[in-house]
């Protein structure tokens, strides 16, 4: 079996500063990996590099054995749900935010019913009446879970997550854990939450843009 994601000795510079140095790791379908380290160590830069938001100075990134280039990046983005610490939902109401991708031709035929919207929200400990709330008025943790719900509705299989449990209470955090226990979902995340790190089968520690430790947990 080939990895779904592979970094092969990747170095990245941004604004004339080296932010990643000689990074190598592989992630197979269904695996859950967490990037950890001090602030500024390069964790989020790994996610941004995979999304084509940083220029690779040397080495290569592969997605499903296809090398990441300007012409192939769209294939990665179409398969991926990226949820940052403060997601931009892109619509005035939560309902419109969830339905936004289904306005496009590629997803129009899969537009979810009201029942499916509510089911996706409830999986993430969000009440049905949040659908009628303004996106700008819900909390950061709620925005993250709405963005996760949108990914689930779209059937995304690869999730890039940046501290998605940092603003959640214990019950909401457990709901997120339960969703990502699904063996069909592949996860590359930035995290400091010890419980999330324990959930992940692979922990990648970074320091000053370098990968210093790859740890495989016993539950991998």
Task: Identify the CATH homologous superfamily.
Answer: P-loop containing nucleotide triphosphate hydrolases
Q: What is the CATH third-level topology name?
A: Rossmann fold
Q: Give the terminus-to-terminus CA distance.
A: 16 Å
Total strands: 10
Organism: Candidatus Methylobacter oryzae
Protein name: ATP-binding cassette domain-containing protein
GO molecular function, one term: ATP binding
Pfam families: ABC_tran
What does this protein structure show overall?
The mean pLDDT is 92. This protein has helices spanning 43-50, 73-79, 94-99, 114-123, 140-153, 170-180, 194-199; strands at residues 5-14, 17-27, 32-36, 56-63, 66-67, 80-83, 158-162, 186-190, 202-207, 210-216. It has one domain (5-216): Rossmann fold (3-Layer(aba) Sandwich). 28% of the residues lie in helices and 29% in strands. GO terms for molecular function: ATP binding. InterPro entries: AAA+_ATPase, ABC_transporter-like_ATP-bd, ABC_transporter-like_CS, P-loop_NTPase.
Q: Concise description?
A:
The chain is an alpha/beta fold and 220 residues long.
Q: What descriptors fit this protein?
A:
alpha/beta; 220 residues; 28% helix; Rossmann fold; 7 helices; 4-stranded antiparallel beta sheet; ABC_transporter-like_ATP-bd; 10 strands; ATP-binding
List the helices and strands and how they pair.
Elements: E1 5-14, E2 17-27, E3 32-36, H1 43-50, E4 56-63, E5 66-67, H2 73-79, E6 80-83, H3 94-99, H4 114-123, H5 140-153, E7 158-162, H6 170-180, E8 186-190, H7 194-199, E9 202-207, E10 210-216
Helix pairs in contact: 4-5
Organism: Candidatus Methylobacter oryzae
GO molecular function, one term: ATP binding
Protein name: ATP-binding cassette domain-containing protein
